[in-house]
């Protein structure tokens, strides 16, 4: 806030408070020559008289007390422009204080699970219950309440993991996040194989997973194989099995995060994809991250005999 706006706010506040004080004093003051409260000479129907009685003193004094309180409030909490106030109060400071109290209480709840391995936590019904609650508050926005994902957001209930599905890999994903980038190869492929180059690669990718067999063109797939081995093999591998080190998906399975239709694959290959999994470590902390990672891991791993599932 500039100095001019700062003074504008201060003057406006003082004008209103002082103006209200003056108006209260002026209107409650009786002047010489004013009729008595019951001598207004206003009558209706012969026996109805209008009085002009002043407000009770306790009521007027209550207004004055409220005005004094307003000045005190503004000086203590800071309401005059950028003035911070004697109390040095701020909404951020109060939020941080309340958050610290809440976090301290949460730490007591999560303390028994501190540092435990993901697969160990996954066998604890109470730990899974807490992990499910954290998932619902944090992860369900993208992955859905059932964790089955959506277009562009992976399904967490199957056995397919682009970045690895071991307990350690899932915990790393939760703590540090992931960023998957599929470059836009449309122009490059067209320069190598002509205007239909992207469709050739799609035909070969479908052949890798044995999809769309009735409409597959052997010629297109053969052309696509050459183009694939010139560009795509670096990330997805010669056999199309992908590489979990870089998050490159397996092209031979039945799962396609952005869809396996020709239109979806054409968009993916031509214009690329950019998926980001945020890092939740700084938000949730280590223990809560472990609990939610244990819950996610449990979704695709059956509990051992004799244990209960929190799902």
Topology (SSEs and partners):
Blueprint: H1 3-28, E1 43-44, E2 48-49, H2 57-77, H3 91-110, H4 118-121, H5 125-138, H6 140-143, H7 167-176, E3 178-182, H8 186-193, H9 197-208, H10 218-231, H11 233-236, H12 262-271, E4 273-277, H13 281-299
Antiparallel strand pairs: 1-2, 3-4
Helix pairs in contact: 1-2, 5-13, 7-13, 9-10
- Outline: elongated
Query: Main β-sheet: number of strands, strand sense, barrel status?
Result: 2 strands, antiparallel
Radius of gyration: 35 Å
Which structural class should the secondary elements be placed in? mainly alpha
Number of helices: 13
Distance between the termini: 52 Å
Percent of residues in β-strands: under 5%
Listing every helix as H and every strand as E from the N terminus to the C terminus, the arrangement reads HEEHHHHHHEHHHHHEH
Tally of DSSP β-strands? 4
Provide the CATH superfamily of the largest domain. Answer: Cytochrome c-like domain
CATH architectural label of the largest domain: Orthogonal Bundle
- Overall number of structural domains: 3
Q: Quick one: CATH class of the largest domain?
A: Mainly Alpha
Low-confidence stretches: 304-311
| Side-by-side strand order of the widest sheet | 1-2
Describe this structure in a few short sentences.
This protein has 13 helices and four strands. With 311 residues, the protein is mostly helical.
